[in-house]
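Supplementary Methods, section 5.1.

A reviewer requested that the exact input to the structure prediction be made available. We therefore reproduce it here, unchanged from the version used in the analyses.
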Amino acid sequence: MLYRVMREKSHKQIAILLISPTILNQKDIYITNGNAASDNSAIFSSVEGRRIASNIRDEIDKEWWTDSDGSKRKIMAECLVPESVSPELIRGIYVASESAKSELEQRIVQAASNIKSVPVTIEPKIFFQPDWRKSITPRLSLVKGDMFFSKHQTLTISVNCVGVMAKGLASTAKHRFPDVYVKYEDLCKSRVLKMGVPYVYKRESSIFNKLAYASFGIENLEQQTWFLLFPTKDHWKNKANLTEIESGLMWLRDNYKQQGIESLAMPALGCGLGHLEWTDVGPLMCKYLTKMDIVTSIYLPADKKVSDEYLSEDFLLSQTR
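The structure derived from this sequence is encoded token-by-token as follows.
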């Protein structure tokens, strides 16, 4: 449900309360095994609900959820409390940004002295926000976070040309979007996918429809989620090929309008399992992505720390001058 709410409101308007689990001991509560408004969810009394609570908790910490395994329903399980939650049961409050934290803390002080001590923590991941973002140009940004929550029209997956999605971002895409893997495997078998020539897989559905509960009533849901399958190496055993990556970026620069790409999210190409260095890849990507008249985000390597000097505009735009 939160994923839907985030589509309707700014993350600056939303706070999440951390409630003590002792609330489950109240006799007047009810527990559901899904969204309470869904016909597929059951509502249990407090005694019955406590028996299923542990099973529900196993689903709550998932980073992704689907209809097929029932996790999409279970992750929206609710504890229904009549009237209100007692302030002493509030252990903490989560917000998405520093500005939201500052505003909320001021409101808490003004509203009630008995909850002044409740800590307010900035946790952008809970709100499907990136951990960090930096603008390089008005249309190009660097991002740390989960690319699949970017809301861009087209998401880029680094791939090889032999049909293997065994590790890294490609493996994540295979797990979360089985149809992408089926398409990718077919492209490799038919030898359509080649080094230097990425392929745009134009899916008909959006990530929002996959993750959100009840998409009715939400405006602007006509946008689809596409995938740009970008070869960075010929075989999965090889190191990524920087020359071929540049050829792929040139193709993208020359063809993105014709392909209908309206916004784009890309990983740091070849910097993970491809064993390339950001100091080589970053400026090269910026050289071509700055030539494109669309909003683009480069997602930094998740398992490598990049020095601030290599995230500066001067360094990354050095090849564009």
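The first helix runs from residue 2 to 8. These observations are discussed further in the main text.
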